[in-house]
Amino acid sequence: MAFHQRVAGAQLVHFLKVEPQDEGTLPSDAVWRRFLCHALLSTLPAEAIVEVEDRLTEIYDDFMPQGRPQSGGQVSAPRLFLAQQGQHHPRPGIEIED
After folding, report:
1. What is the mean pLDDT of the chain?
2. pTM above the 0.70 mark?
3. CA–CA dist 48, 37 (Å, integer)
């Protein structure tokens, strides 16, 4: 499941890949809630983003007093990755049969 949003100077892409669980088992509610939060955030006006950041930072500080996720992983500072565009390879047309 994926959606994207254009903002000034960027395109944000939210992508959820559901990994196989035991047969017949759906992803947890927590997975869907996290994805919903991404969707809600993307619909807010730009003026609301600073307030959302402040509130989420407060919540993060309340739940993560040491600044580390509960899973034991580490949170790293945001980094900028620049990519160079490579060669363009045209894709073959797709034929759809009825």
Report:
1. 77
2. no
3. 14
